[in-house]
Amino acid sequence: MLTGVEIKRKVVHLSSLIVPIGYVLTSQKTVLTFLIPLFLCFLLIDLLRHFYPGMGLFFQKYIFGNILREAERSRLMGATYFLFSSILTILLFPKSIAIASLFILMLSDTAAALVGKWRGRVSIFGKTLEGSITFFASALLIVWVYPNLDRFPGFLAALGATVVELLPTQVDDNLTIPLVAGGILFFCVR
User: Fold this and answer.
1) Tell me, what DSSP letter sits at residue 126?
2) What percent of the chain lies above the pLDDT cut of 70?
3) Which portions of the chain are predicted below pLDDT 50?
4) What are the boundaries of each domain within the chain?
5) What helix, strand, coil percent values describe the chain, rounded to 5?
6) What pLDDT, in 10s, does the model give residues 38-72?
7) Is the dihedral angle over the CA atoms 100, 106, 109, 111 positive or is it negative?
8) Which SS3 state, helix, strand or coil, does residue 125 take?
9) Distance between CA atoms of 94 and 84, rounded to whole angstroms?
10) Cβ–Cβ under 8 Å, residues 139 and 104
11) Are the C-beta atoms of 80 and 43 separated by less than 8 Å?
12) What pLDDT score was predicted for residue 89?
């Protein structure tokens, strides 16, 4: 069942599309000039909210507290991981691979969550089969329609990203999805 909080989370998630779209329209230097300070601000806020109770209460009440998942209350926020993985993805991979990998993170993860919460019936590792199929199909569509990407490496990248999104690991999938998808595309094209 989709809740108002989950819908708000997905709206925030989709607003992050500004990163790959900005990268399409500008240069690596321009995007990183924006992302690095933003990441440092989010990291600072994240650390302050954990080490200073007053900041934690302020954050909880006035900023993103009502849309944080339970796991994010005791560790870094997904947004902090997203910013860090965006920086790494942009630094590590060629532009087309980085952009496609970031689109997979934002679009496929959002689609999987929405379908999984709305129609999901078969549970796997706390996720749903229906959400995972949606993730894979949308990731496959992204890598197949994005220019200058080969279809077979794209298939493998979509599959790899789906697997890391599905598996119950301690590492935030905002970090793993674009790095795995980008890594597979990068090494399969070489």
Assistant:
1) T
2) 84
3) none
4) 4-189
5) 80, 0, 20
6) 999 989 988 988 887 777 677 666 666 566 666 66
7) negative
8) coil
9) 17
10) yes
11) yes
12) 98
- Which among 48, 176, 154, 41 is positioned nearest to 97, based on CA atoms? 154
DSSP state of 82: H
- For 101-121, the pLDDT digits (tens) are 999 999 999 999 889 887 868
CB 99 within 8 A of CB 20: yes
Which H or E run contains 123?
Answer: strand 123-124
Q: Which two tokens stand for residue 58?
A: 């302020």
Chain-centre distance of CA 22, in angstroms?
Answer: 16
Asked if 143 contacts 149 with a C-beta cutoff of 8 angstroms, the reply is: yes
The pTM is what? 0.88
Which residue type does 174 have?
A: N
Output the furthest CA–CA distance in the chain (Å, rounded). 51
| Residue 57 in tokens | 């209460």
Question: Under a CB-based contact definition with an 8 Å cutoff, are residues 35 and 87 in contact?
Answer: yes
Confirm if 113 and 86 have CB atoms less than 8 A apart.
no
CA separation, residue 179 to residues 9, 111, 121, 148, 157 (Å): 22, 19, 29, 19, 10
98 Cβ partners below 8 Å, 6+ apart?
20, 23, 89, 90, 92, 178, 182
Average pLDDT score, the chain? 88
